[in-house]
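One chain shown below:
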Amino acid sequence: MIVRKMGRHALLLVAAVLLLGACGDDADPEAAAAGPSTSPSAAGQPLAVKDMWVKTAASGMSATFGTLLNTSGTDVTVVKATSTASPMMELHEVATVDGKMVMRPKDGGFTIPAGGSHELKPGGDHLMMMDITTPVTAGTEVTITLTFADGGTMEFTALGKDFAGGNESYQPHMPGMSASPSMSMGG
């Protein structure tokens, strides 16, 4: 009799665990299928990345988003980015200029505090890809290399993802840029 009661309790416990597991969050199933979303920093690397993705685009401009995690005991400043999908990248911020949200190069780069993180997100800081030469489609892996203020580098991959936002105006501040001030990332 006790064994039957314990068996029923165990069965109810297993059913409850399975039911709760099925309720999960609304995470993107493709992202879950792709495996872990955090890349630990390699030996000697001060940063790790989490949930890195690139907005899909056949040409023109796109951007890379996710989280940069500083695993070191000192501040790290990212000053440059390069990519396999684009011959030119810029570190961008989104700011309000004359009442409009605009993208522009981020003076001084992105500083990630010791033990802290820095979010790259639509409508905020991001890695801007200019003049895309290799189309970025959903599921495509794009290799990106970050350069730090001390000259060190770090490489990671970001996954192509469809995204309808990101239509801020682009405001270059560097002379000789080929992009016009009214250029946008598209949607």
